[in-house]
Specification:
The chain is of the alpha/beta class. It is built from six helices and 13 strands.
Length: 202
């Protein structure tokens, strides 16, 4: 049976997402081994913290090159900071290059509301995606962030929310998907999203 490789690069709570995947009966392997990433059916890139720290760790370990190569062959899902790293660059702390898998950048949210944005917000779906099959528009998911993705192409935005200003909640380009929110902390809605990801074929 195949598995989803959960990338271990020293950033993020790996257990919460693997626990959710295990609950769904989806095999996972926490790894930083390029060979295990190559053999996996899918890859999940979690992340908590600052963009440049995470991007530097991916580059220092060579995992950035592995992820770029594997994005051509299999589904990849970035969660929270992991989603932000999928884009071309971020401006948190200092301008820093991302993985260049989804054209766009990551900028601080320009909202009058309190940052970080912590809590439950509803989703709308401006563009269809298999990641949200069976998820109703208006469903609530859990966010924790101060920076958000600004995709170059409107068609790359597959979910959005509103927090004083419009906020990109999820992106997609080809096999590459990203959720700004935490599906592993979003109850049944989040489980459905992870179930959908587990069922994607490259």
């Amino acid at each position: 049976m195949g598995y989803t490789a959960v990338v271990d690069y020293g950033v993020g709570n790996l257990k919460s997402v693997t626990n959710a995947m295990d609950y769904l009966g989806l095999n996972t392997c926490i790894t930083s081994d390029p060979r295990e990433l190559e053999l996996a059916d899918a890859i999940l890139l979690p992340g908590v913290g600052a963009f440049p720290d995470a991007a530097d760790k991916l580059r220092l370990t060579g995992l950035d090159r592995v992820l770029t190569a594997q994005a051509e062959r299999k589904p990849i899902l970035g969660i929270c900071l992991g989603m932000q790293l999928l884009l071309d660059w971020g401006e948190e702390v200092r301008r820093c290059e991302g993985l260049n898998l989804v054209p766009g950048c990551v900028r601080k949210m320009e909202t009058s509301l309190k940052l970080p944005h912590i809590g439950w917000n509803s989703l709308r779906f401006p563009n269809p995606s298999p990641l949200f099959a069976g998820v109703e528009e208006g469903s609530y998911v859990y966010f924790v962030h101060s920076f958000c993705a600004v995709a170059d192409a409107p068609g790359a935005v597959i979910a959005a929310t509103y927090y004083g200003v419009p906020v990109t909640a999820a992106v997609q380009k080809g096999n590459v998907y990203g959720c700004q929110f935490h599906p592993e902390k979003s109850g049944e809605v989040g489980l459905q999203i992870l179930r959908n990801f587990g069922g994607l074929n490259p």
